[in-house]
Amino acid sequence: MGLLKHAILPFYALLNLTLTFKCLVFEDMMEDSLKVWPRDTKDYDVPITDLEKHCQHCLGGIFACLLLNSIAAIFVENSHYRGMAVLIQVLFFVVDGYSYVRLGKDVPAALFVVVGVGIFGLGVNSKEPGV
C-alpha cells in the first residue's frame, strides 16, 4: 500500500513546489494571472496593488508549508500522518474551489483533478493497517 507514499504525496509535493515558485519567485507570472480577476477598474493593464502582492506572498508561504508537510509525510512512517497531510491538501483546494463558486467564476478542471487525487489517496489510506 505504498501508493500514498510513492505517488500521491509526491504529486502534491511537486504541485506545492510549483505553486510556491509561482507565488514567490516568478511573481510576474502570478501578477499576469491576477489581472484577469474583476477589480475596481476594467483596465487590466493596471499593476496589482501592494495588498494583492502581499496576499500573493502569503499564499506562497502557505504553499511552502504544504510542501514541507508533504515531504515530511513521505519520510515519516506513520499512516495517520500521511492521511492528515493529504486531508489538509484536499481541504485547501476544496476551499479554493468554493471561492471560485462564491465569486461566480467557473471552477478550473485542474482543481477537480487535484481534489480527486486527494480523495482517492484518502480512500487508499483508509485501507492501511492500523487506520
Secondary-structure element series: HHHHH
Q: What is the CA-atom radius of gyration, in angstroms? A: 17 Å
The chain-level structural class is mainly alpha
Strand content: under 5%
> So what's the overall shape?
elongated
User: How would a textbook summarize the main sheet?
Assistant: none
The count of helical stretches stands at 5
How many E strands?
Answer: 0
Outline the low-pLDDT stretches: none
The N- and C-terminal alpha carbons lie at a distance of 13 Å
Average pLDDT, to the nearest integer? Answer: 86
Helix content: over 70%
Summarize the helices and strands and which ones pair or pack.
Blueprint: H1 3-24, H2 27-34, H3 50-75, H4 79-102, H5 109-125
Descriptive notes:
The chain is mostly helical and 131 residues long. The protein contains five helices and no strands.
Question: Care to give the gist of this entry?
Answer:
The protein has 131 residues and is mostly helical.
Which characteristics define this entry?
mainly alpha; 5 helices; 131 residues
